[in-house]
Each structure stands twice: as C-alpha cells, then as structure tokens.
Specification:
mainly alpha, 12 helices
Length: 211
C-alpha cells in the first residue's frame, strides 16, 4: 500500500466516523431500539444500517450516485419516501407506547418486548436506504479520492473502511448505552423514551420535508 492511498484511507475513515456520530436518522433509530428494546435489537438495527450502506456504496462507486444526485425526480422520490418512513416510525413509536397499560408495564419482560431480529434489521436498512443525503455524502467524499483511473482495489478499500467504521461505531454505541448502569435506570422510563424518540423521528421527518 503506497503512502498516498494509506492517507486517503485514514481520511475516509475519519470522515465516515464523524458522519456516523452526527445525529441523524441512523443515530436516532439505533438509539431508540437500544433504549426501548435491548442491546440485541440495537446490534441488529446497526446491521441493517450497514447493509443499506452497501447499496449506497455500490451505486456510488459505479457512478449511478451522480445520476441520483442530479435527477430531481429520483432524488425527491427517495427523499419523500424517507420522510414518510421516518414519520411512520415516529408515529408508531408514540402510538404503541400509549397503548401499553400500567399492568403491561409491571409485567414487562425483555424477551416478550424485544424486536424480532428481522424487524430491527428492516428498520435500520430502510432508515438508511431512504435517506437521499447518503448519496450526496458518498459522492462528495469519494469524488475527492476516486477518478476513472483509480484501481478497483482502492475503491473497494475505501468502501470497506467506510462500512466497517460505521458498523463498529453503531455497535459500540449500542454497547455503551445499554450498559448495566444506564440500562437499570432506563427500564422504568421505556415508554417515555419511546414517545420522546418517536417525537424526535417525526420532527426529523418534518425538518427533512422543509429542508
């Protein structure tokens, strides 16, 4: 590996980490599923986000991402689908928390309340996939390092670094916020957390609508 390519990988990894850390749809859905359900749900949600990243990385590296960014129709279709999905997640979070009775809360069991793995993966996958800003992010990032002459081995290395950093960050986040100290204090507030996170998802969808 030459020095320039190594430097590029460090830059891609650093920018990818900053993008993953910044609050957004992916961050909210991973945090919500960790706090409302369990660490396992958080891990599967993070896996869903990372699977959607593969789709974004693929079409960006082969050049289709430019078409999405420059086509108002395609961009808006993805944008409004993402807005509707975030609003749906937020609404269902609030609605489900309001339906739970005090008796159900007293009988709370993680095994009964946990998200099925496929459901968690689906939520993470769709939340990331339907975010059109991902296409713009990858185009702006990789256009700094990739030209028609860039070997495919280098392109794949950049993609793997971005994918790995994002997945590891969300898994680390899931581990931290579901630690014993925090989790033991969050159990009694799960319904409230669900409502708050649902409201944040709905507010984020409104922000995306008027952005």
């Amino acid at each position: 590996m030459d020095a320039q390519n190594f430097t590029n990988l460090l830059v891609v990894g650093s920018v990818s980490l900053l993008a993953a850390i910044s609050p957004g749809p992916d961050f909210l859905i991973v945090v919500r599923n960790n706090l409302v359900y369990s660490r396992r749900s958080g891990y599967f949600t993070a896996l869903g986000v990372s699977l959607a990243l593969i789709v974004h990385l693929f079409y960006t590296l082969v050049g289709i991402g430019v078409l999405i960014a420059e086509s108002p129709l395609i961009y808006n279709l993805i944008k409004y689908a993402g807005i509707l999905y975030l609003f749906y997640l937020g609404f269902t979070s609030i609605y489900s928390s309001l339906k739970k009775t005090e008796e159900m809360n007293l009988k709370y069991s993680k095994s009964q309340e946990d998200l099925p793995p496929l459901k968690a993966i689906q939520q993470g996958f769709l939340t990331n996939l339907l975010n059109p800003k991902c296409a713009l992010f990858f185009i702006s990032l990789f256009s700094q390092f990739i030209s028609p002459e860039t070997p495919w081995t280098h392109r794949i290395e950049y993609a793997v670094v971005n994918w790995s950093v994002t997945l590891l960050w969300f898994c680390f986040l899931s581990y931290i916020i579901t630690g014993k100290f925090l989790a033991s204090r969050m159990d009694r507030f799960r319904n409230s957390i669900d409502r708050i996170m649902g409201a944040l998802l709905m507010l984020l969808s409104a922000r995306m609508l008027f952005a």
